[in-house]
Amino acid sequence: GRKRWALYPPHEVRVSDDGLTSLQWYLELYPSLPPEKKPIEFVQGPGEVVFVPGGWWHCVLNLETSVAVT
């Protein structure tokens, strides 16, 4: 299924997630981010592969029922 991704490269200062789940982060923290602090975002489609380089903070929200291999 589709997944919504948010990523920050290692050199970016990001707002702390304080142990929030992905859904909590998107609902509670994301809306308050100013435009210059927004992450790199995209939607991954079924069958697509995403490579996340080491050190990159990321948050993934399942938009549909899916299976992930990490």
Automatic annotation (TrEMBL):
Residue span, JmjC domain: 1-70
PROSITE patterns for the chain: JMJC
UniProt superkingdom: Eukaryota
Any one annotated GO CC term: cytoplasm
One Pfam family from the record: JmjC
Protein name: JmjC domain-containing protein
Record field: transmembrane: none
Xref: SUPFAM superfamilies: Clavaminate synthase-like
InterPro entries: JmjC_dom, JMJD6_ArgDemeth/LysHydrox
